[in-house]
Amino acid sequence: MNDTETKLHRLFAAATEDMPSGIDLLDGFAAARRRDRARRTRRGAVLSAGIAAAAASVAAVTLTIGSAPPALATVTSALTRTLAQSYHLSEHDSSYYIVNGRIQYPARDACTSEADPVRHLKATSCSSGPVAREVGGYTYLYIPDPVGHPGQDWQRAPTASLPQPPSSVNGFITATPQQMLAEINKAGQVTVAGPATGPGWTGTRYAFSASPGAGIKLRGSVTVDQQGRVRALVLTTRLTSAADVLVMTQVLTFSDFGAPVTVTPPPADQTYPLP
């Protein structure tokens, strides 16, 4: 699979984040790391886009910080409510390797999205360049000057035919909010970390951490406002191997709840089907 096809499948997976949960994020971990290493060798360090860094499946999560059950119920209810309405999303991702005690290959990316899960509309753009749209039952990925398709810069695929969000730590494609919700729903405990505030709102920040498998450590937080909506999600994943440590952090910020979302498909003569 070439670089364009790899980016395509990653972006299509991230673009379908509004699919139902029930995802095993640990499966495929080794394959994803191999792809990262190959890409790192070729280009140093890159941060691939999507509404999408890093979650690992928790088959039976026992979090390391204790709390009363209502904290978990509050967080899962807020995420469920947030993902059932339209919203705008700002995402900042960062990653680096630790090799022989030194930080190497740092990478960053920033994305913005607007989504309406009920109407299956979504548009995403990132500082690294890729752009994706979901509208009319199709998902479109912008690929400048594709080989064999002059003047057709949008690759198209039926959204229903695309795979569910990636079932692995898939390069630097980040965990979707739905994937985070699936992981938190499996959690037995969440702790209240303290009060939180933002422009025009106040709320509570909740924290969690876990070690779902050998060499994998997760920690994160969810901020819920007084209206029961998620304002921020933070997830840091630390993957340790014999050779190095990969640290990936994803920061999501939600805003404009309920705002109208308008997504238009690219002109038909500028699109071509996914092979």
Can you tell me about this structure?
- The protein starts with a helix and ends with a strand.
- Helix 3 (69-82) packs antiparallel against helix 4.
- 19% of the residues lie in helices and 38% in strands.
- It is of the alpha+beta class and 275 residues long.
- The protein has a 12-stranded mixed β-sheet with strand order 7-8-9-10-11-1-2-3-4-5-6-12.
- It has one domain: Clam (outer membrane lipoprotein receptor (LolB), chain A).
- It is built from 4 helices and 12 strands.
Keywords summarizing the entry:
single chain, 275 residues, alpha+beta, outer membrane lipoprotein receptor (LolB), chain A, twelve-stranded mixed β-sheet, 4 helices, 12 strands, globular
Q: How many distinct domains? A: 1
Strand content: 35-45%
**Beta-strand segment tally:** 12
Proportion of residues in helical segments: 10-25%
Helical/strand content category: alpha+beta
Shape: globular
CATH class: Mainly Beta
User: Per CATH, what is the topology?
Assistant: outer membrane lipoprotein receptor (LolB), chain A
Poorly predicted tracts of residues: 1-9, 11-16, 18-69, 166-173
C-alpha Rg (nearest Å): 18 Å
Number of helices: 4
What is the CATH architecture assignment?
Answer: Clam
Oligomer: single chain
Order of secondary-structure elements:
HHHEEEEEEHEEEEEE
Distance between the termini: 12 Å
Arrangement of strands in the largest sheet = 7-8-9-10-11-1-2-3-4-5-6-12
